[in-house]
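Entry 12.
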Amino acid sequence: MNTIERKNQTLLYCTVTFFFVILTVFSIIIFWPQNGSGKIKKLSVEPGISLRKLASHMKDEKLISNAYMFLSAVKIMGKSRSIPVGTFNLKNISSNYFIIKQLFYDSPVLKKITFIEGWRLNNFMDHMATELLIPSLQIDSLCKNIDFLTKHGISSDNVEGYLFPETYFFSENPSVKNVIGTLLKEGQRFWTPSKLLRAKKLGFTKHEIITLASIIEGEAVHDQERSIISAVYHNRLKKNMKLQADPTVQYIINESPRRLLNKDLKIDSPYNTYMYHGLPPNPINSPGEKSLNAALYPEKNNYLFFVATGNGYHTFSKNERQHNIAKRKLQKLRKALKNK
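Predicted 3D structure (tokens):
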């Protein structure tokens, strides 16, 4: 074997040895033993936290015993720039490898939360505060933040009517921007180009359709009546009649649903559709998809009035004489129930 061959062989040996040592060191770091507890440990990772602060927090919580080795393992595995967000239930914290695997490759714990059609902003706020532990003041402040509203295409002074009622899944301890933003984006998904065009053909803006849909949501109990109720309001608007919608007055008095009194109908407010023509300035609740579709696609009829029948349904009338007959029937029913 000549000198060149010996040098090449020595170089190859050194190279292999070097990579073997590096691989061994990396393996030791990645599989470095941590606390080794068999108990399930909960870890919440806040948005924007640095890797170093996360490691320090984990050490304080006794999830790891060596923060430096954990940081090194995360960097070796190429995850230092993809810090997860959410709450994780760590089932195995025996080594860096198993902790990193659960943090960076498994999904965080998700919380199911449902928002109901017809809820007002304060209902959404209370539910978020209870279920997601977000302070009401934070929610209220963001929902009235003009820059935030403008970013999401809302011209109103708050998000009333725009928080889309649906079932969502959030990680534990989510940020208020994440939650409100998710509900607003879900609402935007409803507004396809064809629905925006439909609103324009009807002579309404998107905001006006949402406002009308919120009134329909406040009136309708049974789905089959939504498009009929919508038609009544469309017909009254075309004839420049006051809408005389009870839910708009309920919105003003801000009390639990009750029978309206004559004095309620005299409250001077732009939301009082017994006093003022046209739609109120903003939605009065968050309408669901069925009410939004009803507002866009009303039934074709000549009804101008409707009154409750006492079982969730309504009697629809084309003129005031028919309407008065229907009202007397309802009054007789209420009187009979009261005397029982």
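Annotation: The mean pLDDT is 89. The chain has three domains: 13-105, 110-190, 209-303.
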